[in-house]
Specification:
The chain contains 17 helices and two strands. With 322 residues, the chain is mainly α. It has one domain: Farnesyl Diphosphate Synthase, CATH 1.10.600. One of its GO terms (molecular function) is all-trans-octaprenyl-diphosphate synthase activity.
């Protein structure tokens, strides 16, 4: 299923969101404009703002408040990317040099702070305490997820549950907030709001699990980053944890060494191990289960183009190659 087809359902609203993004990013400080424009223009799937719009469309009319919130969600995501790339010392994202590579770490961190604070200025304008509550909680939990991930680096003994907690905090929480916001602004029932939030959390989890798979099986040009980036940083992702359990003693030792020491010296052997043990297939299967659970949560909603697009988006999340 093509992401372009899914986005065609909300093309006009996405143009309105882009207009809000451009207007809201403006600053009298030239460096802020340069860095912000660079990362916003850097492509990306724009999934999170799309989720706000599709969620809203499942309950009624999409309006200007949804456009504002879709932009807010994209700003929160963008700020985390700027900070992430500094923490991870990343050199490439979406097939281009990262902002910290071009502008330096200090500029990336400070402009990330600007984008965060601009997001909170915008959400105040929506004049909904419930919206503020959801986004404040999401931003806080994302930060906790970042710290949890930092604590897990070079730890080959973490459990699957501990790793999934990082995914839920760091990635899936913003997906959940995006789908919840669409429902809130449309005054959906509490049951429907919870159903949409469940969909978002499950979709975000599936999405990150496939990212983990693509780190060992994707095409670096297509996914826009170097293969083995997570391994190089010593991050113990789920494919590695499963491969350590299923592989030979030698394979387990190789993966453990790669996690504990970081770097890419062991990448060929690790790649062979995750393929031979079937770890990637297992992670894909878990991602499919998550996506299905998300779809099941919204099956009771009335049929609409937006609901259909949400169901198709779950298919895309697990079948994608980028």
């Amino acid at each position: 299923m093509s992401l372009a087809f899914i986005k065609s359902c909300i093309a006009q609203d996405m143009q309105a969101v882009d207009a809000v993004i451009r207007k809201s990013l403006h600053s009298d400080v030239v460096l802020i404009n340069q860095v912000a424009e660079y990362i916003i223009n850097g492509g990306g799937k724009r999934l999170r703002p799309a989720l706000v719009l599709l969620s809203a469309g499942a309950f009624g009319e999409v309006n200007a408040r949804h456009h504002e919130l879709a932009a807010v969600v994209e700003f929160i995501h963008t700020a985390t990317l700027l900070h992430d790339d500094v923490v991870d010392e990343s050199a490439m994202r979406r097939g281009r040099a990262t902002a910290n590579t071009l502008f330096g770490n200090a500029a990336s961190v400070l402009v990330g702070d600007f984008i965060y604070s601009r997001a909170f200025q915008m959400m105040v304008g929506v004049e909904s305490m419930r919206v503020m509550e959801v986004l404040a909680e999401a931003t806080n939990i994302i930060a906790e997820g970042e710290v949890l991930q930092l604590l897990n680096v070079h730890d080959a003994d973490i459990t699957d549950e501990a790793y999934l907690k990082v995914i839920h905090y760091k990635t899936a929480k913003l997906f959940e907030a995006a789908t919840r916001l669409g429902a809130i602004i449309c005054a959906a029932s509490e049951q429907d709001e919870q159903a949409m939030a469940e969909y978002g959390m499950r979709l975000g989890t599936a999405f990150q699990l496939i990212d983990d798979v693509l780190d060992f099986s994707g095409d670096s040009q297509e996914i826009g980053k170097n293969l083995g980036d997570d391994l190089a940083e010593g991050k113990p992702t789920l494919p590695l944890l499963i491969a350590m359990r299923l592989g030979t003693t030698a394979q387990a030792q190789t993966i453990r060494k790669a996690i504990e020491e970081g770097g890419l010296d062991e990448l060929p052997a690790v790649m062979q191990a995750v393929h031979e043990t079937g770890a990637l297939d297992q992670v894909r299967a878990i991602a499919r289960q998550e996506a299905k659970a998300g779809c099941d949560a919204i099956q009771h909603l009335p049929d609409s183009p937006s609901r259909q697009a949400l169901l198709k988006l779950a298919e895309f999340a697990v079948d994608r190659t980028f």
